[in-house]
Design goal:
Order of helices and strands of chain B: HHHHHH
Oligomer: heterodimer
Radius of gyration of chain A: 20 Å
Number of helices of chain B: 6
Largest sheet of chain A: none
Number of strands of chain B: 0
Largest interface: A-B, 118 and 110 residues
Number of domains of chain A: 1
Distance between the termini of chain B: 18 Å
Structural class of chain A: mainly alpha
Helix content of chain A: over 70%
Distance between the termini of chain A: 52 Å
Largest sheet of chain B: none
Chain lengths: ~150, ~140
């Protein structure tokens, strides 16, 4: 699977490069709805969704993927505050520097200072979330224990 | 609209969709970059290997783009580094909190009509649309 994953990453990077997602100024231009709006990146999503929607139809016809025992696709359908809060923070961060995770990594590999700084901070943000979640969950356990205790 | 590049945007999007489709049909996984990065932090598990391999592919792709199509990765960003750090922290924290980014929610999730992904994508787009003029105002621009 490792070799396949490598080439999938390579193909993904090629798509990001061709589409213009690796140019933060262009991404900011897309998010600049009230300024000099560049709608190109909406078409990146259209192209990607058109292809993947076909792929997902093909998936529905199969019992299992080619090289694994089972599909592992998220099944949750609930909208919770964590989803909304997370998406809001992500959207704000995306708009500040024009990087989302994929293009950040692709351009960091070129050694561009802004991209390297972005990716390191992004990893920091991910670890920060992990730490925050661990603290929150340990408190929740304490709360439950307090309720259970006589 | 002078920077509008509809054809390369559609074609690039199709390649992104193809990569995500390959991971789904071959290995049964959703291609979400924030999940791949977040999942490879911490203690190694059965998924760490392929995740790191995929990230290596992304990075190698970046180097190849720089060599053969340097204009595609010519990062010219007029933002102070402090703003870039803040952006990275928000993107990292937010994508893990909300379980996905542009690829996982925006492409894979919307394609399978996941209500969570649809709501997440509308939310991060809206947050982006609001943030761009705010940043411009803070930076003293027009």
């Amino acid at each position: 699977m490792h070799l396949r994953a490598f080439f999938i990453g390579l193909l993904f990077a090629a798509g990001l490069g061709l589409s213009g997602m690796t140019l933060p100024a262009k991404v900011i231009g897309f998010l600049d709805l009230f300024g000099a709006w560049d709608p190109s990146l909406a078409l990146v999503m259209v192209g990607a969704i058109a292809v993947y929607a076909v792929g997902f139809r093909l998936k529905l016809r199969r019992e299992a993927p080619v090289f694994a025992q089972a599909f592992r696709v998220p099944t949750r359908r609930d909208i919770d505050p964590r989803l909304l809060g997370g998406a809001t923070l992500f959207g704000a961060g995306w708009a500040i520097a024009g990087f989302c995770p994929g293009p950040g990594i692709v351009t960091a590999a070129t050694g561009a200072t802004a991209s390297v700084v972005f990716v390191l901070a992004m990893i920091g943000g991910m670890l920060l979330w992990k730490a925050a979640l661990a603290i929150y969950e340990s408190r929740a356990v304490v709360d439950v224990a307090a309720q259970v205790a006589p | 609209m002078e920077n509008f590049t509809p054809f390369s945007a559609l074609a690039g999007g199709a390649l992104i969709g193809l990569a995500a489709t390959a991971l789904l049909l071959l290995d049964g996984r959703v291609l979400g970059i924030s999940g791949v990065v977040g999942g490879s932090l911490g203690r190694p598990n059965a998924d760490t290997g392929w995740r790191l391999a995929l990230l290596a592919g992304l990075a190698t792709g970046g180097v190849l783009l720089m060599v053969f199509f340097p204009a595609t990765v010519d990062v010219q960003l007029d933002r102070p580094l402090g703003a870039v750090v803040l952006a990275g922290l928000l993107v990292g924290f937010g994508t893990r909190m909300g379980n996905g980014c542009t690829s996982g929610h925006g492409v894979c999730g919307i394609s399978r009509m996941s209500p969570r992904s649809l709501v997440a994508t509308c939310t991060f787009m809206a947050a982006g649309f609001v943030t761009v003029p705010l940043v411009r105002a803070l930076m003293g621009g027009v």
